[in-house]
UniProtKB/TrEMBL annotation:
InterPro entries: Phage_CHP (IPR011738), Phage_gp6-like_head-tail (IPR021146), Phage_HK97_gp6-like (IPR006450). Pfam families: Phage_connect_1 (PF05135). NCBIfam families: phage_chp_gp8, put_DNA_pack. This is Phage head-tail connector protein. It comes from blood disease bacterium A2-HR MARDI. Signal peptide: none annotated. Transmembrane segments: none annotated.
Amino acid sequence: MGIRCIAQPAEEPVSLAEAKQHLRVDFPDDDALITSLIVAARVAAENICRRAFVTQKWELALDGFPRQNFFGSLSAIAPVDAFIPNIIAAEMGYVVRFRGGKIELPKPRLQSVDYIKYLDVGGVQQTLDPTQYLIDPMSEPGVITPVINTYWPVTQNVMNSVRIGFTTGYGDAVDVPEGIKSWIKLRVATLYSNREEVAVLNRGKVEMLPYVDSLLDPYLVVYL
């Protein structure tokens, strides 16, 4: 089980020009550095929020489809008693959760499900017909589930037997909320001003401004 980005965003939420204006830098010498800091800050913010900002494509690998058994617990199709955990790698910036036969896809906002591929019991890769599952992009996180009165197909009992490709994010950079952009600018400024891993403090204790991380609070994906 795991997740990987298969198409990075075409642009960053904060442009180089916007970052340089925030930094009050008017020379080109550090353009490459500032560009890399924007990417680093964006990735940090996405991991904190557990969501994607600008449109990007991801592939989620599972060891089987979820299925509700007679006791109400979540188990794999093959073998029947194999337990699939509700939450995967929450500390790595993404969460995958199963609710009955539903799969909650990580890194909202979900735009589309591009494919669902799986290995059947014979080990042959199949692509599930889109008419066989429902997509709920309005929920955060987005949800996919089999159509009414049907079940997910049986898969071979191997690792990563199911692969789900999906597109996610707010849209273009202009669609990303301003609070997120402000946090990214502040993080870029901090990274730009501190070029070393260890800082020597000669003016007493230094603390993060209390409002900074609260800029991201409205956009956190919370799992109850």
